[in-house]
Design brief:
Distance between the termini: 18 Å
Shape: globular
Order of helices and strands: HHHHHHHHHHHH
Largest sheet: none
Strand content: under 5%
Number of strands: 0
Low-confidence stretches: none
Radius of gyration: 19 Å
Helix content: over 70%
Number of helices: 12
Mean pLDDT: 81
Amino acid sequence: MYAVFRRELFSFLSSMVAYITIGIFLLVSGLLLWFFPDTSILDYGYADLGGFFSLVPYLFMFLIPAITMRSFAEERREGTYELLITRPITIWQIIIAKYLASLVLILFSLIPTLIYAYSLSKLGFPEGNVDSGAIIGSYIGLFLLGATFTSIGLFSSALTKNQVVAFVICAALCAFAFLGFDYSSQLISLQNIEGFIANLGINQHYNSISRGVLDTRDLIYFITVSCLFLFFTNLVIGGKR
């Protein structure tokens, strides 16, 4: 399992795709946070990273599909898929190894953004006057969101050997899981169960954690959705095996 994890991680880091993808993510988030007038925290008048944490989920809809699209699709395209699944390890071990490697890459993407929180604490008046609880909760929410999107990405990559198709499927599923239930809950015919429908979506639980309050219901939700898509991935890989 460790061999698959190491191979997956270093094969991505040895390509320019990793650095371009992560670089674009950091560049766009930095521009949106500090330079663009409509989203710049310098125009808010108070030290708050809420705008950043509201923007990153939408960037994740492109970053994470770019990271996970090659997980199984490239194995099948290059003909190494058969060698991988006939190794003396279980399918679950292969899936978990690829899943953890993708999570490490997402952590690599988020770590540089900690400088935003540090810069904000220096800009606060008085210095350090920031809501650290909300920032910590938001980062935890981002990691859980990334873990959920990663499980969706692995499932999408297992469906096809075309990386572009896997990217599109993952981006569409992530967008629907994050926003689709909120929009569905606003339909006139569903107004009586609006809260229940909205609660099925990721956005409600992500916003809840971003307030700095770790509710076990939100944690269970993210873990359940992640495990569900990993289970779907196992079904797809097991069937093709």
